[in-house]
Amino acid sequence: SKSAGRNCFTIYDEAMSAELEARNTLEGDLRDAIARCQLEVHYQPFMDANNGARRGFEALVRWRHPARGLIPPDQFIALAEETGLIVPLGEFVLRRACADAATWPSGLMVAVNLSPIQFKEADLFDVICAALRDSGLAPHRLEIEITESVLLERGAENHAFMERLKHLGIELALDDFGTGYSSLSYLTAFPFDKIKIDKSFIRNLTHQPRSSAIISSIVTLARGLDMSVTAEGVETSEEYERLKALGINFAQGYLFGRPQPVGQIDLDEPVQSSQ
Ligand code: C2E
Ligand code: CA
Ligand code: CA
Ligand code: CA
């Protein structure tokens, strides 16, 4: 009936405005969180698969919300990107990660995720240089992880930007490989040092022979392009053994450690000797 229809719309509107309100609250909270330093950077190790030694840590942001506790990035990164808050958030993570890594043994690297939105900021290069300078971290100890969406938009500009980073000695990793509009031509056209195979491929590894085939082709391709390969989301030693047999260079996942606050990292563990 008509009235039921109208009710339906009313409910729909209310649901919409409730959602909008929740979003606005979250946006305001996130703005405050950045200003009040409620963001934390946690670190997850990645290992050199050749010798089993720890090679470095990936910096992963968390939000210590006064009422809601620790909020994972999947719940606020998209909002931060839509609102532009990713720019100050990303700078905070970069500066924090460089400052923390500068206190670690010099064989350890730090990997920082950069959003495609940050790539549109004209001063990103200066922001990165300032983070390195202020922390004293050697550029070759910083790795920047970007997803392939950076390559789709503004390809030529981003390519030039990546070359400038490489020139400084910064390492570049292509994150979440295999999940987006991956085209192999991107790999040849952009100066990546490393490909990170998305964890969805690792998850299927022991059940789906196809995943092994995909991973081994990525390894072959990467070798031909003089790039190394990281497997993310390694949870079991079976997966790790299989991945080593397939020729991956680095491994990251719960098997080796979860993301942890900087104070909880055990820095006394053996570190790979830098050659
Ligand atoms: P990502 O860059 O692909 O990071 C890896 C994610 O996989 C992390 O989730 C990590 O905790 C999780 N992970 C690691 N090992 C395992 C495993 O063995 N099994 C499973 N199931 N998961 C594992 P997290 O910390 O929740 O981060 C989610 C995403 O949020 C990241 O995915 C990244 O895209 C984004 N993110 C996190 N920190 C930042 C940041 O500072 N800046 C930007 N732009 N994005 C960030
Ligand atoms: Ca990443
Ligand atoms: Ca990833
Ligand atoms: Ca991701």
Automatic annotation (TrEMBL):
Residue ranges constituting the EAL domain according to the UniProt record: 23-273
Location in or out of the cell: Membrane
Protein name in UniProt: EAL domain-containing protein
Origin species: Bradyrhizobium commune
Organism lineage: Bacteria, Pseudomonadati, Pseudomonadota, Alphaproteobacteria, Hyphomicrobiales
Shown segment, full-protein numbering: 531 to 805 of 809
